[in-house]
Amino acid sequence: MNVMEKKPEADAVVEPIRVNHFVRGKLVSGDAITHRSRDLGVDFVTPEIDLNALVAPRSELPPLLDVPTSEIIDFLVEAGQRMDFETNPYLQEALEHTVKVNPLPQRVVENLFRRAKHFLTREGLMCSIESSFLNPAALDGWIERTDMRGNKGALRAFPPRMVHMLAGNSPTGCISSIAQGALVKAINVFKMPSSDPFTCVAMLRTMADVDPDHPVVRSMSAVYWRGGDERIEGTLYRPQYFDKIVAWGGGDAIRNVIKYIGPGIQMVSFDPKTSISMIGPEGFESAELIDEVADAAATDVATMNQEACLASRFIFVEGEREGVETFCARLQERLGVDRETASAVAHPLPVEVRDEIEMLQLMEDDCKVWGKADGRGLVILTDEPVDFHPSNKTANVVHVNSLDDAIRYVNVATQTIGMYPPERKRAMRDRLASAGAQRVVRLGGAAKHVMGGAHDGMLPLQRFVHWMSDEDA
Prior knowledge:
- This protein is α/β, with parallel strands linked by helices.
- The protein has 17 helices and 20 strands.
- The protein has 2 domains: 17-272, Aldehyde Dehydrogenase, Chain A, domain 1, CATH 3.40.605; 274-442, Aldehyde Dehydrogenase, Chain A, domain 2, CATH 3.40.309.10.
- Helix 4 packs antiparallel against helix 5 (106-114) and helix 12 packs across helix 13.
- The chain starts with a helix and ends with a strand.
- It holds the Pfam family LuxC.
């Protein structure tokens, strides 16, 4: 049988995945446009975007303007209770499709979905509001004030109109964005990423099941377009339509948004960050302690298979060389462990990174490597940080004379710093903040959060609102 005779059998037709949109409370289906996912090159189809439907005219007051914050929280909590993976058909369908376009393995995505309902708790939502606003009543109305000269005025945290460019590295990150948009009573358009154009709509459909006419539901739209599409972005990213662009994403995505920023439209950027770890000599005092510290460090490195900004990539260590090398060996072993948000095996390192590592081993006498570039965990010990971006469960352990010396490698792109022993955080946090870092945690706690904390050096809710002043001076 020749090749031509075999072809029909070999070329099985794969139907593209259907992606739904959700526009101001209504589900929109269709297959007008074909796209290809960035990470895995999978085709999916979406409806045509009706730009007029996405834009609420300025003459139209936001649907949530006069809805009490307490009622919004009640609604979000009820929606959160319905985000139970076992019983929610929208989440189950989202999982089925997300794993086809997202580099994270199915087990990790499913674990994230099983935790989805915990994003919308009354305690967590209240913490976000109370830590962001000196007087949360400003969200519900005008707050009267008098200055030291007796001049009277009033302030209100007025609902903004926002486009959210959602991050693609965490399928459940959209839930926090939806909650934030609701808490500030915004009119929201969520631009979904190609690595997950499903979860946001699943959440909004769940909310519509609670009450399809609720002002929260009518304030939300979720659509997909290819990033950089000037036909859409050149129309939407205008101050007559929106106040803020909330940009999550890589450098190219952020630079693309910047060109639209001007008077009347602002960017709130959660741009790419790198996270690190710092371990003092106390971590290498015994074999048992080294094992404990290595597991904590591996937990931080492997989070989301190192796709998350808070996943550690560089580990600065102070201590005797023998203990450090033992730590590196243990760390490499612990990177190959299945965890709730990490698989035992990630994608292999890109070829160009493998070449750089091989060159390091040839050129640098003090460079040592544990493991292979096969996604099971790789540890590189050097005296200076490597020039490339460690990924796919790769940790660059940098041996320094003192953790104080490591501060010179901290900058405004440094998001999370895991510290061991945790008692050293207090002594170093001011200098780390001065260098540009945004968050310091105990080693192993990078993915754990204190409710209501800052994100990327800001309190997002405070940045989102449009502060309106009524003055009678």
